[in-house]
Each structure stands twice: as structure tokens, then as C-alpha cells.
Amino acid sequence: MLRYLLRCGYRSRAIRKDHTEEVTSAGSAATEARSSANRAGGGGPAPAGDSERMVALDALRGIAVLAILVMNIQYFSQVTAAYSNPTLIGPFVGSDFWLWLLARVFFDEKMMAIFSMLYGAGVLLLTSRVEAKGISALPIFLRRSFWLVIFGLLHAYLLWSGDILFSYGVCGLLVYPFRKQASRRLFIIGVLFFGVSSLVYLGYSWSMRSWTPDRIRALEQEIWRPTPQQIATQVNRYRGGWRTQMSQRIPEARLQQTQALLCLTLWRAGGLMLVGMALYKVRLLSGSLAASLYWKLAGLGFAMGIPMVSYGAYCDIVRGWDFRYAFLIGSQFNYWGSLGVALGWICLVMLMCNTPSLNRWSRRFAAVGRMAFSNYILETIICTTIFYGHGLGQFGRLNRAQGMGIVLASWILIVRLSQVWMRRFYFGPLEWLWRSLTYQARQPFRRAEP
């Protein structure tokens, strides 16, 4: 695929910046405000202004942060094992089955793949902009990663154990040294990184041949098929107050940031960040390739990914969701198939951003994407308030259809709120805090009144 892109005689297009006239003029004001601040502070680097943003990247990020809630809602609303083993929560038939299958094929691991690629592209955008001014990007990148890790720790241990920010902060440090490699090499190294996790899972499956039945049963109960008593314990903890939840959240967060990071996330997210760097270098993520090429790549991605993911789901079902097969072997079909489906999503979003009749939607999603960090945390606040005991206490009570209703309502709220917010402010609240800490200078926040 990358060779096809590199050899394709595509014509560069001007990157679309479909902001409204109000936002464009405000971007000039923001740039001037930062220039004044930089002159006062010695001319240091600053975040990208409105006029420097790529609508295609922002829109893709916005769609990803919305779509990832389709999967995260399962983690918020049900016991942890039900995320991987859908047969754990009620009858797996009718709308419950079809909603699960839809999520499995089009969303599960696909949005995380897109986020990881975008993070890799963001590393290039940040470092190239800073280095173009003759300044080393390393101190800024280290501060950026450090604060992302801190935000991730706070998010995971205080709010929700399913946090990904911590892992991205760590993985970013891993991929930073590769950023100046050629796109082909980045792509190859990224795929090799991505494949390490598969080797770990397959090796784990092979090693279980020598395990005793009791040891296998204990692991299965821990991560795949907990006993009714274990399920009741987790449900009661999350329906309890904030302090009661900590007895469940802390062990889960610790597991995510240690064993899961070393066996899965480090290789998956890190590898996809490198792939994202490669795709950005060949301009796939900027929306600047020919529409015909995006259509071809979207078709190729979906044609490879959807059958692979669907076949994996079929094998899991016919094997009765056997733990050793579904968790360690069958999951690999979705793991690798997610790359093709993610490519299809990316290309469709690029086509949307290059279609004038859809510019209104591009701008809406771009507003969501420009404050993706804040919106990601907002999704946590919404869902923990609905499902956990410090709020409405609906943990373990809603089926998939009801959960999807909450997802749709959250999308409407987030899209509208993002539009209103970005008309009045240069950054989302957490984006502003993160950038101010990264650049060690208070960034402009509120736009001037029109």
C-alpha cells in the first residue's frame, strides 16, 4: 500500500482550511497574540494557530473521539470482562448481537488505531514546527509527554481505569527517535512493532499447554468469565460511592499500565504511531491526495479488513467463545483486520473534507477534534455520572441498545458544545492547560469579541 502511494504520480492539492471568516480572522489575532507573547518571552515556540491547522486532521480526530465511545460505553457500563466476552451480559441474540457485531466490525480497535496514527502525525507536526525555528524539539516534547502521563494517571485512578492517555505519553517517547526516518522505513518498523503483540499472545497460548487446569481456570475467571460472585462484587463497587469504586478502579488501572502496556498497548499504539508518521509523510492524512486514490484505498482497506474481522467473529461464535481460543488466537483476526477498516475510515473522512457540499460537517467534526482531549474526558464524566454510584448508579443495568442511546445523545451534546466553545475560545480547556504547561507560558484562551 505504501509503495503504491510513493509511486503514484499524485498531484498535490492545497490543504483545505474550511474555517468560517470569523474563525480565520480570530486565527490572525491569535497568531499576533502569540507573537507578542513570544517577543516578551524571548521568541520561544508556541502551539499552532487557527491558520496553521489542518481541517482534515482535526475532522478525523473529531470523528475518532466520538466513535470510540461506541466501544468505551461497554467498559463504562458493564463488568470489565464483558468488553472481550460479549456473552457475559445477558442474552446474546437479536439487537444485542447485531449491535455487538456492528461495533466489532467497524469500531473495535479501529478508532484506537486512528487515534494512534494521528498521535504519530502530531509528533511530526510539533517537532517540525519547533525545529524549523532552529530550536531543539526534545525539551518541549518531553514536557508534553510528561504532562500527558500525569493527566493519564489522574484520569485512570480518579475517574476511569480505561484511560489511554498514560499509554500514549509513554509510547510517544518510544517513537520520538524514529521521526526523521523515511516513510517506507517508518511503515515497516511500525508494522513490525505492531506484530510483537501478536507474538506475545500466540506465545502465551502455546505456553498454556503446560499449565494445570486450575491455573487456566483461575485466569479465565479473572479476565474472561468471572464467577457470579466476582461479577456481583464489581457491580456493587461501581454502584457505590467514589471511595468504594477505588477498590476496583486502582487494580484495573494498575493492570492497564503495567501488564497490558507491556504485552499489548506499547506495541500496538507505538507501532501505529510510526505508521501514522509514514502516512502523514506521504500526505494521506492531510486530505491532499486525489479523490480517486482515496476511493481506491478505502475500498482496499474495507475489502481486506471487514472479511478478516467478520471471520474472526464467526470463529469465536462457533467455538462457543472458548477462552483460550477467542482471547489469545481468535482476537488476532480483529487485531490485524482493524488496520484495513481504519484505513477505510481515514479515506472516507478525507473524501468528506474535500467535498464542498459536506464542508459544514467537516467544520463540525473539526471543532470536536480541536478539543479532542477535553471531549475525551467529557465522555468519561458523562458516562461515569450515568453508570457509577456517585451519579445515577446504572452500572450493569442497561443493555446494548440502551447504551447506544446514551452514545447518540452524547454525540449530539459534544458536537454542539464543541461548536459553541470553539467560537469563543482558541482551545478546549484541557488543551489550553496542556499547551500552557508544555510551552511554559500562558497561552491565549478567549477570542476577542466580534
Strand-helix topology:
Elements: H1 2-7, H2 21-40, H3 55-67, H4 69-77, H5 94-106, H6 110-131, H7 138-158, H8 165-175, H9 183-207, H10 213-223, H11 228-239, H12 242-257, H13 259-281, H14 291-318, H15 323-353, H16 359-370, H17 372-387, H18 400-424, H19 429-439
Helix pairs in contact: 3-6, 3-15, 3-16, 4-17, 4-18, 5-14, 6-13, 6-15, 7-8, 7-19, 8-13, 9-13, 9-15, 11-12, 12-13, 14-15, 16-18, 17-18
Q: Write down the secondary-structure element order.
A: HHHHHHHHHHHHHHHHHHH
Helix content class:
over 70%
Q: C-alpha Rg, in Å?
A: 22 Å
- General shape: globular
Number of helical stretches of at least 4 residues: 19
Q: How many angstroms does the end-to-end distance come to?
A: 47 Å
Oligomeric organization of the protein chains:
single chain
| Largest sheet descriptor | none
Strand segment count: 0
Q: Structural class from helices and strands?
A: mainly alpha
Low-confidence stretches: 9-42
Strand content: under 5%
Arithmetic mean pLDDT = 90
Folded structure, characterized:
The protein has 450 residues and is an all-alpha fold. The protein is globular, with a radius of gyration of 22 Å. About 8% of the residues have low confidence.
Summarize the structure.
This protein is mainly α and 450 residues long. It has helices at residues 2-7, 21-40, 55-67, 69-77, 94-106, 110-131, 138-158, 165-175, 183-207, 213-223, 228-239, 242-257, 259-281, 291-318, 323-353, 359-370, 372-387, 400-424, 429-439.
